[in-house]
Amino acid sequence: MIAIFKREMRSYFTSPVGYMFCAIFFAVSGFLFMLQTVQAGANANYTGYFSIILFLFIIIIPLLTMKLVSEETKMKTDQLIMTAPITLADIVFGKYFAALAMFGGCFLLSSIIYYIPLVMYGHPNFALYAGCVIGIFLVGSAFISIGIFISSLTENQFISAFGTIGAIIFLLFISSLNTYINNEAIRQFLAGISITSRYSYFSYGIFSYDSLIYFISLSAVFLFLTIRVFEKRRWSKS
Fold this sequence. Notes:
Blueprint: H1 2-13, H2 16-38, H3 46-65, H4 70-75, H5 78-82, H6 88-121, H7 126-152, H8 157-173, H9 184-193, H10 195-203, H11 209-236
Helix pairs in contact: 1-6, 2-3, 2-6, 3-7, 3-8, 6-7, 6-11, 7-8, 7-10, 7-11, 10-11
């Protein structure tokens, strides 16, 4: 797994993808943070900043995941790594943790940097801020696992990217469907699988174990499905 992790991390910085991700994330997040906090003055709302970051995922997560597996399939290098003396789980988790390290590194670094002026010029609620950071990180980790799964289904990077965009949009806006549904059982189900509903606990400074398990389970399910895709591909080529 370590070898795959290093290989993927190296690929991010030997191609424009890693630099594009960092540039877009820091530029957009910095601008949004300035609008929500610095220019707002006494009405600073950093929870609003984190809520907007959720929708930024629609753009930045596909950048990280669209080529992780699809490019391997297109270039036929997937056959090499699948015949290497490592397990399929090592391959999938190595790719997943590389993408997570890219996202987590940028996000956590920016969160620390942005917290400094809040402390210098105000009295932010640390529990609320930390809850938002944890919640956003968990959402990002779940979206990355979904992106890797979709990338494993196609050799076309653009199809992978658009598929991931569609999945993220669906999960972000699924709770809004409750407005048009009268059936209480369906409403409860949609609220239960809604990313935004689960994240809302953290945005209020509440550490929800149910939501934590939900995000970990969601990531685990899609990583498991990705391993099954690799397994099916290995058997079909054997």
